[in-house]
Design a protein that fits this description.
The chain is an alpha+beta fold and about 110 residues long. About 10% of the residues lie in helices and about 25% in strands. This is 2Fe-2S ferredoxin-type domain-containing protein.
């Protein structure tokens, strides 16, 4: 099983075979920026600093070919093929704690 190092927070997480980087981050309680979890919004856009990933199908809007060629990936669609190091592009997780919100739809 590969390890992914999240350079934003200097933390390494083991990723299960076939698991996406985003899924592994969320399972490890990392407040990773994301939205749709299906490769359509681009909110989890990430720079692959080191390593390689298989990238599942995604919207060209979320990750155009020229951005992919420049080393960007979508964490929700990226499965590491070995150890990797990444930097997400949005915000700083150390300043955004998890919140649990409860609500009622009326």
């Amino acid at each position: 099983m590969p390890d992914v190092t999240f350079l934003n927070i200097a933390r390494t997480v083991e990723v299960q075979d076939g698991e996406t980087i985003l899924s592994a981050a969320l399972a490890a309680s990392i407040d990773y920026p994301h939205g749709c979890k299906s490769g359509r919004c681009g909110r989890c856009k990430t720079r692959l600093v080191e390593g390689a990933v298989d990238l599942f199908e995604h919207s060209r809007f979320a990750l155009p070919p020229e951005e992919r060629a420049a080393g960007l990936i979508l964490a929700c669609r990226a499965v590491p093929t070995g150890n990797a190091s990444i930097v997400w592009l949005e915000g700083d997780a150390t300043t955004r704690p998890f919140d649990t919100l409860r609500g009622e739809v009326v």
